Amino acid sequence: MSVELKNDRLIRALLRQPVDMTPVWIMRQAGRYLPEYRKTRERAGDFMTLCKTPELACEVTLQPLARFDLDAAILFSDILTIPDAMGLGLSVIEKQGPRFEHPVRTATEINKLGIPDPESDLAYVTDAVRLIHKELNGKLPLIGFSGSPWTLATYMVEGQSSKTYSIIKGLLYNEPKTLHILMNTLAKSVATYLNAQINAGVDVVMVFDTWGGILTPDAYREFSLQYMQQIVDQLQRESHGKKIPVILFSKGIGNLIHDLANSGCDAVGLDWTQDIAEIRELVGNRVALQGNLDPAVLYASPDVITEQVSHILAGFGSAPGHVFNLGHGIHPEVNPDHVKVLVDSVHELSKPYHN
Q: 188 and 115 in contact (C-beta within 8 Å)?
């Protein structure tokens, strides 16, 4: 059931429509930097139980909204839910990151993979979306998300985080046809998963391509970009008469943002190594831009945070189509008071750009 949004600033900005001030949300805004999150995480017992219990996922999704004047909620989940539902045995080890008990590295293993059913294999996610949607009751838009096919594949093949990505790159160069089979399966899975989130009540979807930047430009276009393009083409772009904006975020790709902006998405996310003024000149008015404060700025004093916010707002300028965010996820050790400075500064300092 559709509910009219009381604050649609984010939706309007993503669709490059006029707003009264620049909207802001923060990647990983529901997370370890908040003491209330840590308490809920302790109650859950472990990270995956927190993700897989809709009531707890709802609780932590809403926690930052009680503290900060944010313009969106983002579903609390993990980017690796799809490979977990494929039976790869995901565990998340404190201070070590995700690990898969059953990585896939051969054509036989990859050909056995099926496309998870979001309403059965991933019902805890769609149930959480419905619960959060109900609790928000139109106060703010809800963002749903998934990892990109390439990023999911890196974890599925490597089995864990990697510094060299030697196994997945070995597959890429030695058996590209096998890797393409995996990428096709993942693209269909991500599109199905995101459409299920849209049907359950999210207002925006985002694809996180965390490891796109480890590829050469040609390999990025072949093994990452083309599969995000497939997802964009398969997504339900309207629900209950409202447009559903799509954000794509590839970390570390530099000027390949130009290619990403041609994918058919509504917005591209920028990491902190990119100059927002230069990227805006490069992509023109094709897409909205999201970003891109260095997360480490939040360790600085309030005056420095305000100064850096001002610099990014000035870099984008006065046209519609800017969503303020960090250039990646918020760090766990950040002082929540500094996040409030960031959010309030974005709203206050951006008003002159929207007159």
A: yes
**Per-residue pLDDT tens over the stretch 197-222:** 999 999 999 999 999 999 999 999 99
Amino acid letter for position 11: I
> Mind listing the domains of the chain with CATH numbers?
9-354 (3.20.20.210)
Phi, psi at 185, each rounded to 5°: -60, -40
State the catalytic residues: 28, 32, 41, 78, 155
- The terminus-to-terminus CA distance of the chain in angstroms comes to 34
Q: What whole-number distance in Å separates Cα of residue 27 and Cα of residue 25?
A: 7
- Residue 244's identity, in one-letter code, is I
Angle CA(328)–CA(72)–CA(95) in degrees, nearest 5?
A: 40
Mapped onto helix, strand or coil, the DSSP state of residue 246 is strand
Question: Look-up: residue for tokens 């974890």?
Answer: 155
Residue 250 and residue 291 in contact, taking contact as beta carbons nearer than 8 Å? no
Indicate if the pLDDT at residue 3 is higher than 80: no
Contacts of 112 (CB under 8 A, 6+ apart): none
Instruction: Provide the β-strand partners of residue 130.
Output: none
Q: Are 269 and 206 in contact (CB under 8 A)?
A: yes
Half-sphere exposure of residue 106: CA atoms within 13 angstroms, side-chain side: 3
Q: Are 207 and 231 in contact (CB under 8 A)?
A: yes
In this predicted model, what pLDDT tens digit does every residue of 246-272 receive, in sequence order?
A: 999 999 999 899 999 999 999 999 999
